[in-house]
Amino acid sequence: MKAIRRFTVRPVLPEPLRPLSELAHNLRWSWHAETRDLFQSVDPEAWGAAGCDPVRLLGRVRPARLAELSGDRRFRRRLNAVADDLDDYLTGDRWYQAQPEGLPRAVAYFSPEFGITAALPQYSGGLGILAGDHLKAASDLGVPLVGVGLLYRHGYFRQTLSRDGWQQEHYPVLDPNELPLSQVAEADGTPARVSLALPGGRALHARIWLAQVGRVPLLLLDSDVEENDLGARSVTDRLYGGGSEHRLLQEMLLGIGGVRAVRTYCRLTGHPEPEVFHTNEGHAGFLGLERIAELCARGLDFDAALESVRGGTVFTTHTPVPAGIDRFERDLIAGHFGPDAELPGIETPRILALGTETYPGGEPNLFNMAVMGLRLAQRANGVSLLHGQVSREMFAGLWPGFDTEEVPITSVTNGVHAPTWVAPEVLRLGARKIGTQRAEDALAVGGSERWDSVADIPDQEIWELRRTLREQLVLEVRERLGASWRQRGAGNAELGWIDGVLDPDVLTIGFARRVPSYKRLTLMLRDQGRLRELLLHPERPVQIVVAGKAHPADDSGKRLVQELVRFADDARVRHRIVFLPDYGMAMAQRLYPGCDIWLNNPLRPLEACGTSGMKAALNGCLNLSVLDGWWDEWFRPDFGWAIPTADGTGLDVERRDDIEAAALYDLLEQRIAPRFYERGRGGLPDRWIQMVRQTLTLLGPKVLAGRMVREYVERLYAPAACSHRALTPDTAGELAGWKARVRDAWHAVSVDHVETTETTATAELGATVGLRVRVGLGALTPDDVEVQAVSGRVDARDRITDATIVPLKPAGTPDLEGHRLYEGRLSFDRTGPYGCTVRILPAHRLLASAAEVGVVALPAEDAGEGAGVLLR
């Protein structure tokens, strides 16, 4: 019989065990080993059956066992010690509290997905895991962050395989009452709500759930409430599901509803109002519109409100390709805003203009969420050094007249939350060498350039640790593979071979990620005969563990999964290569530590960052990757290997993949496998162990989420907070008026003539040359602009590279025609072909970047001396 109604029955904990409830509902347990160990000791069997989820555990444990524990003095002492440790963690000063004054009182961090723990499945891949690690690291550092997302009743899909290896999706229903969540409630106990107006007089209501991530509150909006009609209730049904309007409503609820949820939470709890709003990818971009509407309701006009909002907004882009950005039909956007829908106080054309692709090649009928995100944020960043460069190139059209290097998009390379991803065995080894507290601080807070204490760990201990982790992975793989085959319809009598799958003494390669085509899941299958030889080599075999999900609507991705599965099903190699379905956090936490090599072979430069290799590296796993994302930035031969890329423009796709696959096989055959199996005098692979040691010593501190969040605080959050405070209603109005005046007058700004004191085409290193520039400013004054000399080496087409910028100073008063003279000196500080030009930029004390206004004046062809200086 099927139940017609569902209830969640919570246990009544004896008074001595009451701290268990608070420990279970603070997700710090997901990265704090002592808390997890405590819950496991409550009932080891029930702990495993509950999926290592304390909330589910407490719902399963027998009352008799609780009564027994309440009388166990040793358990109570242990419980109180862990509870006291959590209290110290939540209330004590941390890194942020020791910083100079001026940091933001609070930061709101918006993301469409958050990967905190497998017990709260609200993520699909790297973006969500990164967001979860950002919150955890912020908690460890004491950063006053408030996370904002959506609560998806079906989460992302669960993956199984059919008998022939085709991906199948399942959407289990998640009951928030069975998750580590609590409802945000008004003072009278009623659930707190936010609402959005929909076209046709309808409304979208959502309640607010709270997940406590250490010190960081994470607010999750849930539209499955009785006040909504059926369509509105389904808005938060699935992560990345549905059509365009469904996605638009999700993103409106995330951005607009999210700001309203933050305001509600701060009102009810006294939490400081955020001074900085961080938009993690364009999905949450509508938060800027809601904040503009708030200011307009207080009397600011749209332009002043826009400047105020921009000052306190940070936008992070994660995609290196335009196809990865959400874009909506303009008519769809227009129908959901205005007098009959949401934000009636803002004129719809002003909203549409924010997302219009005004650059060459843009689609004027589409509304681009990333473009809106960039226009609503004074500060923006990519997620690796290479991705910052790619992003500047991709969005350069928004800043015409500026070199790509000057596009105001910087980069903060992603990091990973080490306490979440480092195996307990690795942490214990570090704790034995430097103490538990120092080891935890090194992983969570970071701050050191090197982990030199790793040098003191004997080779034998490192090698024994690596084998232990590999052996644990082998057991995990066999268990998961058996479960997968039973789901595919196999009986136990057919599965005896699984006991021989993988070998704890064989070189183990891991490859696990989402399965879009650019990540090239099946590149390893390019020459299947050669791959079989690698897997079955009589002296130096390799074994490969593969996992990954294709998007439910991506049949081409599903075909790649099926191709890999069919190869792995071959009886000749199935003991050496496996595909594990339903890749998620729980699997990943075993997979990264147990591998010797982490493989990544995307199409360069389409991997924005890619953090799985970072997690592997923190466990002593070496990377084998294309030079893309973070690996392009930090690769050294000490840490692993770089797969050469076939970058020739004349290559077709097939030829490129053939070349790069052959390079992958060559590395495995000729360099990697021989080094793993090579033994020194002590019977250990000395050179391999040295690479593991170097990875931990030099790469470990770089890849930490603690390092990443500190960079966000120092380089983006702190300046954004200063801008937010400086842009009062009056100064925001001043800045908006100044920008309008400058843009209106810019047509009359010109570089009319450039002359130099140097008459020859050569100069000596260290010499200087005087510059005299005549400019026209029209209705503007010298206070409105900066005239600059831009110099540096020139390439074959006379383009200036590695530029040096020198401001020129006004000399005298305007002439009879209103032109002004600017002067300065230029130093020749490098040899070789050298060039200089002049430009005029707007200048204002409240600008974060000279490119912000989007205008620049350059010399005309007849401005004198070739519009600049060129020395060879």
Automatic annotation (TrEMBL):
Family membership: Belongs to the glycogen phosphorylase family.
GO biological process: carbohydrate metabolic process
Reactions catalysed: [(1->4)-alpha-D-glucosyl](n) + phosphate = [(1->4)-alpha-D-glucosyl](n-1) + alpha-D-glucose 1-phosphate
NCBIfam families on file: more_P_ylases (TIGR02094)
EC identifiers of the protein: 2.4.1.1
Role summary: Phosphorylase is an important allosteric enzyme in carbohydrate metabolism. Enzymes from different sources differ in their regulatory mechanisms and in their natural substrates. However, all known phosphorylases share catalytic and structural properties.
First-level EC class: transferase
Cofactor(s) in the UniProt record: pyridoxal 5'-phosphate
Residue numbers carrying N6-(pyridoxal phosphate)lysine: 615
Source species: Streptomyces griseofuscus
Segments forming a coiled coil: none
Domain DUF3417 residues, every copy: 13-120
Protein name (record): glycogen phosphorylase
Alphabetized UniProt keyword annotations: Allosteric enzyme, Carbohydrate metabolism, Glycosyltransferase, Pyridoxal phosphate, Transferase
InterPro entries xref list: Agluc_phsphrylas, Glyco_trans_35, Glycogen/Maltodextrin_Phosph, Glycogen_phosphorylase_DUF3417, Pyridoxal_P_attach_site
MF GO annotations: glycogen phosphorylase activity; pyridoxal phosphate binding
Pfam assignment, any one: Phosphorylase
